[in-house]
Amino acid sequence: MATSIRIDLSPFGFTSTENRVYQALLDGGPAGGYAVAKSLGIARANAYEALAGLVSKGAATEIPGRPARVRPVRPDA
Fold first, then answer.
1. Residue 67 and residue 7: Cα distance in Å, rounded?
2. pTM for the full model?
3. Are 55 and 70 within 8 A, CB to CB?
4. Looking at the DSSP assignment, which residues form a beta bridge with residue 61?
5. pLDDT digits (tens, 9 = 90+) for 10-20
6. Neighbouring C-beta atoms of residue 41, cutoff 10 Å
7. pLDDT score, position 44
8. What is the C-alpha to C-alpha distance for residues 2 and 47, in angstroms, rounded to an integer?
9. CB 16 within 8 A of CB 10
10. Contacts of 59 (CB under 8 A, 6+ apart)
11. How far is 13 from 41, CA to CA, in rounded Å?
12. Is the dihedral of CA 29, 65, 42, 18 positive or negative?
């Protein structure tokens, strides 16, 4: 699901890492913490924390199954 839409979630209380992870999910589609960490060059713990933050704030949903993966909620939602 490649896209060129750039979204800034920081005015809504999202951290800069959550913002980067959300953009990575928009650009690359559903992913888990390991894949996000690798694509952004951040620590896995930070990627998992950002994914959890996105889910808890309603910007992403967890896909059932193993390994756990997260998909972004559409920006216009």
1. 27
2. 0.89
3. yes
4. 71
5. 889 999 999 99
6. 6
7. 96
8. 20
9. yes
10. 9, 14, 18, 22, 72, 73
11. 23
12. positive
75 or 72, higher pLDDT: 72
Query: 75 phi and psi, to 5 degrees?
Result: -60, -30
**Greater pLDDT, 75 or 60:** 60
- Residue pair 75/26 in contact (Cβ under 8 Å)? The answer is yes
Confidence category of residue 1, pLDDT binned at 50, 70, 90: very low
CA pair distance 68, 25, nearest whole angstrom: 14
Residue with tokens 């980067």: 20
Q: Which long-range contacts (CB under 8 A, 24 or more apart) does 22-27 make?
A: 22/54, 22/59, 22/60, 22/72, 25/54, 25/60, 25/70, 25/71, 25/72, 26/1, 26/72, 26/75, 27/1, 27/2, 27/3
